[in-house]
Amino acid sequence: MSNKMDIDYKSYFNNLEELIGRLREEVSEISQPIIKNNGQVLPDIDRYIYELNQFYYQSFHEHFFPDYQKKIKEDVSHLLKVCHQEDMLRKDVLASVRRYARLFNQVKTIISFLQQLRKDNNKKLLSLNTDNDYRLIELFYSLTKVRENLQELFSLSQSLTSLAEEKEFLLAIRNHPGYIPVLRLISSLDITNPYISGSLDKVLINLQYLKKLLARLQATGHNQESLKDLAGEINNGVERFKNKPVDKEILAFYEQNVVNQLPVYVELITFYIDINNLERISQLAYEYEQNLSCWISFIEKGLAWAVKDARVLLSAVELAHTSEEYVPELHKDVSSTLVTLQKIIEELSSTSKADFNYFSQKTMEMLDFAVPLFKAINTEKEIIQISPLASLVNRIVLELAFLRINLDLLSEKHQQAVSVIKDLEDINVMLDTYLQLLANNQSDLERILAPHNIARFWKDLNIKIDRVPLETGKLFPVDYLYLIDKHNIETRIAEEEDNTVLHEEGDIFLIRIDDESETEIPYLVIAAKG
Question: How far apart are CA 373 and CA 13, in angstroms?
Answer without folding.
Answer: 123
